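FAQ: What does a multi-protein file look like?

Like this. Sequence, then tokens, then the next protein.
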Amino acid sequence: MPTNAAPTRPLAIHKISATCVSPIPWWCYRQQLESRAQPRTMNQFSEYTILGERHFRLLHLLPRKETADTEPPMIECKLEVAHLDLENSFEALSYVWGSPNETRPILLEGHVFHCTKSLHTALSRLVLDDQTRVLWVDAICIDQSDLDERAEQVKHMRHIYQEAQSVLSFLGDPFDGIGAAIDYLCAAADDASIHLNPKYEHFLSVNNMDASSDQLSEYIVRLFNLPWWKRVWTVQEFCLAKAGSFYCGEHMVPVNKMTQGVANLLQHAATCCMADDLAFGRSYALADSDVELDVCDALLRLEQLQQAAELQPEALFHNTLLMFRIRLATDPRDKIYGLFGLAPYIGDLVTMDYAAPIEQVYETFTVAYINRRKNVHLLSALGGNRALPNLASFAPDWTIRPSDGWSTDEGWMLTLFNRAINNRAFFNASASTTAEWEYLGPGRARANAFIFDTICVAELEQINPLLLWETTQGWLKRIHELVKKRTIEAKSVTIEEDGDSYTREDHRRFLRTLCGDLIHGEDGIEEELVGDSPERIAMLEHWWAILMSSDLPSNVSLNTNDLQRSVYTVSQGRSFVITEKGYMGWADNHVQVGDFVAILAGGVAPFILSPAVGADELGKAASGDGTCTRRYRILGDAYIHGIMQGEAFRFAGRETGQFDELDLV
């Protein structure tokens, strides 16, 4: 059913499954953690042979046997050892493992092998009547009880999925209405000109349902909320495929057909067909899900996969991690390992080690990746809640999963991705300097950076679309008055004449800060820099006048909505901040008065650091004179108006590239 319930704000750290986090510092108990490592299958299958270098196994799914029994015969399979460098003819399976406690028996090399229910369902659907089918299935073709083999075979998955004749993707269990959802997508694929909106004479409809139907909308949302769309491993399995098909129950549709249908629907939604009264624009909360989606959000799950497939392997790995961080993995290490196949150029960056503590994997990868790329773009994934209490602040927490919490919701995670793309396109706070980090051991790293300023005001944003307009308007007025007061106070100290005035230029600086100096361009999608453009500044002033009026609904225009979206992008999950030197901007919502604005080498945006030292050290830490060992926690990147293009070096009296060494924990 559709819902518009506003999410609540969770605490900075929340619990996740005990199988995912160690309750004690990981560096103290590595041996204990290694001994606790569990295989990913419930079988102790004794027929596996040791694989040679660049060898892998293929599964031969034998033909269905005729039987007089009412019960279907047991599925029979055999294993073949093949070489990666030889020509092999096979299909690869892409599916979700499902619960290890819900299993079904098959015969593997004449022995009973218990596979998960979801795998059994897939094999039952694929078995042929008159010939053997050759497949690659990770749960069977890899000895999951052998962590060394598992790590070695994961390295080959890029090659395996690229070489497969087809990748067969099993989305999950079917539901009532899946046929209508698939029919609608296929009809959209067949005719790119057909509209969604019933106001047009030529519009898309199946079974007397169209874009105004809540029932059809919920069917489509449910289709793209099936388990396959939520798992991290399925990303590379889709992106590397030559060809493929989606399966769900008795339904099968070619990947290219569904992809075309989604593309056509999104094109119409973006250009001519969306309206507030359409069901396609409403969010739906499903009984078996903890996130809400509207139809366009749901369709984007396939659109993003297609974009990633077209970009790889040239896509930057930190972009891939950010784009798909909402996806889940049984083993949290696979939030990184499971995407390595899309980035062959970093294959030697870290050693895949499934016995290593999660925190170690995330921390060492972060430092190694920063040093490889010579920048800190990966740190744009910081911010919001963290689920691993022992993870160092400089390492993104990839275990965070989507939920209805404001900073773990799917929209917020995608906002981080969009914000990171915008930052790299328009800003250069560190003046193209090179990041040089050193891993100092568990929970510690050293970075070249410097403290620039200190936060003196932090106000949690209240301008997101889930709030009442009166709340947002009141908050904006209060922030505006606070900025005016601070501006006048700063002028009274530095300017002898007219020191009590708040000028039009000051107001424009405030407006540019609110939108992060970016607004949506004429296409409504790509951002454009406001800068000193008279036309864009005039748009901002018009937008502000509308926001402050008492009859907002009658004054909303397309440009106003585009500006509002720009403000949401820069502000979501953040607080409005003012610094001691008079700068203002947006920083992670956990920022507090007394935290620092810092420039990290290789960063396109400033970062907020929280002191991890005693109160008597704060003065030394803020001085930036290098006379004490300083430790900081990173909260995340920030938008600080006036220092987004490398100006901080000059304003701090430093040569460009002149950094201190800061210890991060």
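And here is the next protein:
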Amino acid sequence: MFILKNSNSISQIARLQSPKFRQTGSNCTLSFWYYNYGQSVGAAELRLLVDGLKQPTVLWRTYYNEGDQWLKAVIQLGRLPYPFQFSLDKISLGFYEGVSAIDDIRFENCALPPPALSCEGPNHFWCRGTKACIDSLLVCDLVDDCGDGSDEDNCNPDLQCNFENGLCNWEQDVEDDFDWIRIRGPTPTVNTGPLKDHTTGTARGHYLYLESSEPRQFQDKAVLLSPLFHPSGNGTCVFRFHYHMFGKEVYKLSVFQRTMSNTKGWLLWYKFGNQENRWIRQTLFISSSKPFQILVKGTVGDGFTGDIGLDDVSFLGCTIYNGNLPTISTTTSGTSVPATLPMNNCTEKEFVCRASGHCIQMIQKCDFRPDCPDKSDESACVMEVCDFEDKDLCGWHQPALEELSGNYSKYITNTFKWQLGRGANLYPEQEQHSPLTDHTTCTEEGWYLFADSSNGEFGHTADIATPVISLTGPRCKIIFWNHMNGSTIGSLEVLYKSSNRTSKLWTQSGSQGPQWNRAEVFLGIRSNFQVIFRAKRGVSYMGDVAVDDITFEDCSPLLISDKPCTSEEFMCANKYCIPKNNLCDFVNDCADNSDESPSI
């Protein structure tokens, strides 16, 4: 079917109407091929006409000459439970010739689900009237999947919201940059955002959207807060929602879960970039041992064609919690260290406890066991557990950068080095080779340590080291999580340094996939040494090495007890007591090797 425009009359309209249809199923789509060519060929639009509804709903538009070619249009219709028809309108601009044509109109997945003879099992729902058998996850999701409405009967209104009458029991966050907007019909900007809501499939229905035009700026955030819920078992609480991300400059939509009211929570799901002009359903399974809340965060892209839509949010298997979430304390406890040493009788080879003036042996400083009453002997040491939250390096330092400090700040900026990072601070092009979330909190707000390969050159190394560790025990080991993903990833090494001797304890090179991987390095008994993490840069910036949750486990030295060894223990030659299970296990548990003697 085509229209040949060769008259000079302005604003002529050609209209093609479909037959009437009674209803459609929830997955219905309409597709067709169109041709719109000519210097002033004019606009065309497809409209949905619903019985009893005066205002038509625009489903598709083309505004201008699209070249001498056939193009495909795919339109999401969804569940339309009432009689309707389509109108294809073509508007002429006059003056010049143009040709518009349409071909190969196709409806897909538009029938209601067929009746079933049986519908057994906990994962299915048998529709009351149509006798269709549908997935139980489709129950009470604000969509009539059965065709008779029985899957949407007896639903708790506190667990769902279609935004037709406001925000229900959801709230706008007051600590974000701006708010979600409730609207119906198309968003104000063309070529971005929905043309209709998801609930009704027409311009009459309401939905929420994120406006990306001025005065909004890149990475401005709008956050929507759910009601509070009771703890849920392993995935028994299900969150369903429909989102719309259409536009060249659409940025990001994220969903978080939190159990503390003054935190951002941890990331459950996110989607980035243009997902075409359609509503998309997403299902998330939620587990929590504490009362929790869901946060839906939209982030503005770098331009005005970045509107994001949200509609038909619902929960299944969840219970509303009427209390309040606790707040996490932002204060930190610690012992203040006096600037001057207290009165003491310690020798130069002894350490002075800062608060009391007690003397301990120097080898007891930084040995993972606090010997001073105020724990000051472990205060300037590496921490046993480091998760890098609160931007804390836990005593780890970079010797090379300390040597370059002073007038070399510009040089340091471009040096291949270790630094703190998090997923929330990444640029879009970094997301392919840097961790999107940390390992501690599994959120984009959590911190980790990484060597940024956008600095430096091929083969450059970056070292981060502990202060000197005085002494460790026989079963001491380092456990850490590493992230090495990217086409040109270099390597990561764990080194042992004592005096002027450095040896390699562990190494990994090449891409290890887009996930955090656990590593374990045995140290055993060592004295007066440092542990060093060394990253080596690859041939390009496409590969950052990251580490998180570094733990020194069982590293405190053996302690000689005043009590005799029990019947379940072995007395070492140096009077230490160790479990008998540790005998002859190829580990020097006694520190003098007497537990591995052939004479035992």
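Q: Is there any per-entry metadata?
A: Some entries carry free-text notes. For the entry above: The helical segments are 399-404, 409-413.
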